[in-house]
Amino acid sequence: MTPTPERHHVVIIGAGFGGLGAGIKLAAKGIDDFVLLDRGDEVGGTWRENTYPGVEADIPAVHYSYGHLPNAKWSSAFAPGSELFAYARDIADRFELRPKIRFGTEVVSAAYDEATREWTVTAEDGTQFVSRFVISCHGALSIPSRPDIPGLDDFEGKMMATQRWDHSYSVAGKRVAVIGTGASALQVIPTIAPETAHLTVYQRTPIWVMPKVNFAVPGALQKVFETLPLSQKIVRNIVSSTTAAAETVAVTHNKRLPFVTKGVAQLATAFLKSQVKDPALREKLTPTYGFGCKRPSMSNTYFSTFERDNVTLETTGIERITSKGIRTVDGNEVELDTIILATGFKIFGLSYRIAGVDGVDLESQWDEQRLASYEGVAVPGFPNFFLAPGPYGVIGFSWFDTIDICVSHAVDMIAQADADGVTRIEADSAATAKFVKKMRKRVENTVFMSPSCNNSNTYYLNKHGDAPYLRPETIVEAKFAMRSAAKGYVRA
Ligand code: NAP
What we know:
This protein is an alpha/beta fold. It has two domains: 6-143 and 346-491, FAD/NAD(P)-binding domain; 158-208 and 256-341, 3-Layer(bba) Sandwich (FAD/NAD(P)-binding domain), CATH 3.50.50. The chain is built from 13 helices and 20 strands. The strands form five sheets. Strands 1, 2, 3, 4, 5, 6, 17 and 18 form an eight-stranded mixed β-sheet that branches. A hairpin with a 4-residue loop joins β4 and β5 (118-123). α1 (17-28) runs parallel beside α11, α5 crosses α6 (229-252) and α11 (399-420) runs parallel beside α13 (475-483). The structure holds NADP nicotinamide-adenine-dinucleotide phosphate. NADP nicotinamide-adenine-dinucleotide phosphate is lined by residues 56-59, 141, 147-149, 162, 179-185, 202, 204-205, 295, 318, 342-345, 457, 459. It comes from Antrihabitans stalactiti. Pfam families: Pyr_redox_3. This is NAD(P)/FAD-dependent oxidoreductase.
């Protein structure tokens, strides 16, 4: 017998920073009948799951955190992963959200019923939750991407992904391979290299790397932040404005200002030169695509690691993984004890099935008709359902500003519907088309559309040739647009 579904006014999917933020905002509006569903056993999302050696943010901590929830205790300018995880746990405790969280609940589907104007959210174990509204905070980096390399299951040694690090296993003294050279690999490679007997790094596309100006936050400054939270807000605003300006000139208006990314590429090339003496090695590490086409990162130790005697950079393509190691297309096979997959995520992949009016499947609709949304939050045909964020929803460099803007809008729309006695709220098709048209027009000016991105294999561009993740606006522009976004919904 199917157990009776748990009923709530709002179901929040995910208890990462987005879900926690949504819970706080709902409670602040007096909406207490909500539940957060998370497949993990703790809050924190990507920062709970990514515990690989060297994991830390590459956005300054004052900016990579909620502006309305300042944390005076960051130990360094860029927070280590463990502190971000602790910050999430602290938020859950401070706002007493834990009783509302159903851990170990892996959502497999959410289906809308027009007759009742309600959603049924189903977990893997069959548990069901029925609600008027759903806020999906499933995260952009939640589904590890399994690389399409033949023989992945043939390897007889230890294989692990950066997102599922096995801390009971030691790489010390082992022959290790890292596949991938993205932002995660950049952190794990220098951290584990000294311990390994030998480390072979398989690079398909080099990454642009800038120096990381990191420093310990002095105790006196932590004290100032604690006693005068306004001081941290001022620092946040300065960092936030600087990154917004950088993003605007380098990414959003690249077509008009291409010299900016060219100048940054020259600086990054000079940095590489200062780090690596061997010209042949330097050439292998130099990207052949423009700066900004793929996500760049920062590290003071990544490049120099390749000059270690026990590290090899392999740029010949991988043919397959064998029982003993990795064979490249030139027939060379390297015997290994450990393979680390630093091959990233299915960016913006939906981790569960979302069926709207008439059972229309959201992922198929996006696949066939291109990614689209209203204000990066709602989709016509999916009433009472909000994404934090959806396509064209990520604003600037701060994930926290993005999720804050999205969940604030979702909660405002729910509160307004409740106040008006409305039980169905759906993004208007014409308003959505207008928003998407505006975003696609703006995307034409971004760095992603520059010819320098042609051979970059960037995940910012999808199979339709769209760059649908970033909302090419500043936070100020997006917040201003959100003030009048309520009129783009049909209510009943
Ligand atoms: P990623 O940036 O997508 O990098 C994946 C790497 O794996 C790329 O080098 C890719 O090569 C390579 N790869 C994928 N499939 C492959 C295959 N079949 N054969 C060979 N190589 C393959 O993933 P990530 O490093 O995990 O980072 C993901 C995102 O997480 C970042 O973009 C960033 O947004 C975020 N991140 C943030 C931080 C932070 O500090 N805030 C830290 C880590 C990660 P190609 O480039 O050729 O595809």
